[in-house]
Amino acid sequence: MEIEIIRTLTLMISLFIMVWIIYTDTKHRHISNKACLILALSSIASATVFSFLPSAIIYSLIIFTLFFLIWYFGIMGAGDVKLITAFSLGIHPDFILIYFIAIGLFGGIQVAIMYLLSLVRGTTPFDKGIPYGVAISIPGVILSYASTFQ
To answer: What whole-number distance in Å separates Cα of residue 41 and Cα of residue 110?
Structure first.
């Protein structure tokens, strides 16, 4: 029973953070440090309860290092790096590759939709950048929840 409460609580926190991030990233192109911190703490708690924290920390450190370099070269925003790292802490290592494939797929769909909307509206596509927090958050919530059943 306690496991179900923890599973539900971490899902609710992840869903709340996802909605918060999707709104702020889409509207303002900003991902809050506070949102990433709350998500990271929730992810750590979940990984601890479901017994995959040591490996999740190792994978998350590798992911952070790689994406920090991507940020350093100006390819990705710092908020995206922190968000991917926070979600990675709560995703079982067996699902990490799936997570990155899903980010790519959701990102591709998002870019296609943004491009089509710009054609309909007659605006320049991607002039404000791409709010990739959307593509990071959706599979992050799904796979962090799936990780609680691993």
So the answer is: 28
Under 8 Å between Cβ of 75 and 49: no
Please list the pLDDT of the chain residue by residue as tens digits (150 residues). 688 998 999 999 999 999 999 999 999 999 999 999 999 999 999 999 999 999 999 999 999 999 999 999 999 999 999 999 999 999 999 999 999 999 999 999 999 999 999 999 988 888 888 999 999 999 999 999 999 997
- Taking the whole predicted model, whether its pTM rises above 0.85 is answered as yes
In sequence order, the 6+-apart residues with CB closer than 8 A to the CB of 114 are: 125, 126, 130
- How does DSSP assign the chain, residue by residue? -HHHHHHHHHHHHHHHHHHHHHHHHHHHS---HHHHHHHHHHHHHHHHHTT-HHHHHHHHHHHHHHHHHHHHTTSS-HHHHHHHHHHHHTS-GGGHHHHHHHHHHHHHHHHHHHHHHHHHHT--TTTT---THHHHHHHHHHHHHHHTT-
d(CA 148, CA 65): 25
